[in-house]
């Protein structure tokens, strides 16, 4: 328990004045700062927009597709959906992405354009063929660790061409 405070007498004002003139970081900052009047031509800070969900976002009829849905220069778009549970998914997704971008000219590879499913590693062409689909995997992700990723990449390159 904390010790009790000493009682001050009416004649002893040193403790009262010390408490009234306490120096804090804020008080020194306010005392030392020079407050400049706001400039007339300064723009007010921009407000941040809140997040929009698919239910609240309304797209006009003539709006273009979002970047993951739109192929670059008429090339194909490959979507890699990887779970965010473990870094093993991430390393394999990066390996496949780099291999496909090097192996096929004009291909666009997108990793997780939407929220991924749990325990999922899937490689597919946008709106079309599924090259690899490993769903609902549990630890230690045996089906994914058994894959030879170089072979998978070469198979996908062969199917794209």
Q: Short description, anyone?
A:
Helices cover 30% and strands 12% of the residues. By secondary structure, the protein is an alpha+beta fold. The protein has a four-stranded mixed β-sheet with strand order 2-1-3-4, with helices on one face.
Please characterize this protein's 3D structure.
- It is a single chain.
- The chain is 30% helix and 12% strand.
- A four-stranded mixed beta sheet has the order 2-1-3-4, with helices on one face.
- α3 (87-103) crosses α5.
- The longest helix has 17 residues, at 87-103.
- The protein has helices at residues 14-20, 25-32, 87-103, 142-145, 149-160; strands at 77-82, 108-111, 121-125, 130-134.
- It is of the alpha+beta class.
- It contains five helices and four strands.
- The model is unreliable at 56-72 (pLDDT under 50).
- InterPro entries: SelWTH-like.
- Residues 8-22 have a biased composition (Low complexity).
- This is Selenoprotein H.
N-C termini distance: 78 Å
Q: Could you name the ranges where pLDDT drops below 50 across 5 or more consecutive residues?
A: 56-72
Structural class, judged by helices and strands? alpha+beta
Shape: elongated
Mean pLDDT: 78
Structure summary, number of beta strands: 4
> How many DSSP H or I helices?
5
Strand order of the largest sheet: 2-1-3-4
Instruction: Give the C-alpha Rg.
Output: 31 Å
Percentage beta strand: 5-15%
Task: Characterize the main sheet.
Answer: 4 strands, mixed
GO cellular component, one term: Golgi apparatus
Protein name: Selenoprotein H
InterPro entries: SelWTH-like
